[in-house]
Amino acid sequence: CISVLRSLPVLSKTIVMRLLFLEKSVVEGVILEWFKVARDYQNAIGRLLRLNLILKDQHGQFLLEPKFKASIRRYVRNDAPDAGLSELSADKHAPEPGKITRHARECWEMILNLLIEDNPEQLEGKSNQQIAQIETLLEGSGLITRELTPEGDTRRTITSKGFRFLFLPHKKQVWTFMLGYVRQISKGTPSDGVVVSEQDVLRFLFKLSHLSVGQGYPTKNLTEAERVVLLHIKDYGFVYQRKKSSKRYYPTVLAQSLSSMDQSLSDTLGNTHGKLIVETTFRLTAYTTSKFQIAILNMFVRLDYRLPNVVVGRITKHSVMEALKNGIKAADIITYLEQYAHPVMKRTPKALPHAVAHQIHLWQKDRERFQVAPSCFLSEFESDDEYKQTLKFAKERRILQWHSDKRRQLSITAAGLDQLKIQLRKYRDANK
Description:
Largest sheet: 4 strands, antiparallel
Radius of gyration: 29 Å
Number of helices: 19
Structural class: alpha+beta
Number of strands: 14
Helix content: 40-55%
Distance between the termini: 83 Å
Strand content: 5-15%
């Protein structure tokens, strides 16, 4: 329940906290007075009603869902379990907060790099077992696929879903990845003789999400299933442990971001990304040293040259068309450019020049005007009657794509060619 509360928008949280210690239901007019704008009220109360966190009684008055209300009350009164903190002695080897955040960032960047790196063995400080485990998870989530090269080797290739994943907001990336882990572990073989269910994983993730970042918690209070999950998600950056046999684990900002609406958590993990300046001439300047961000930009920008701390390129029709071909949408590109725009650009109402955003949308519409499909082109018919009979047959069989009566030409689907050959043969045999 705490995780659900933390994931709510600010105004929805306000309603919950104001109703929390009221014993009677409240009329709608009272809640409406808490808002200056009626639309804000509709959005806030609508979210709570859709989640069944707030109910209406027989008189149409509002009250909190009883179980949700009781759980939040216990937490606010500090009656919730302390996760075993009272049993812990002083931590002599407590890691610095910066080290925990760095661990989360490095692990998450490793996961993202595995989507676009050709040679994952080049990733420093990561074991082959870690890389293989994450690759299996990415493949099971449909983000990458494996192909055989002409030499007989296996090569990883990012899928269209994987391309779109790279452009998602951080919170959606984390949940997409972890839901893939939940699905994989629920249908996998038992780990160390322990069967782990989807409920075990989700329960532990939500538990982690409202623990304090950087605080040490005892592993002895975890269930066997939670210990298995802990071992896995440590490599994903959701918890930190000094070593495998450590008696403590430390939640990171990645774990907290699962149920938090605080954008600063995402900024903490994404602060290695540089700032982008996009000009009306479609020239892009990226102040960055991140190889990962440069790889992202290379998907839709023609990179011209690179200096130690800056990359310069141009957004062209060809570069954007290549991105669209890979499954990236115009909206994804625009959102990414706005998300990492330089603070100077964000001073204006629109961080991205209108001409640039509009043109990217136009290029996508231009591509969507055409549909590519295998076809067969037929011409040089022996007579006008032969052309008309062939055209009639193609229409009846619904294999006709295009035709010109003036030129006696037509185009049919590749799948319908064999049917048409038989029909033409019958026609010519009958008219000898």
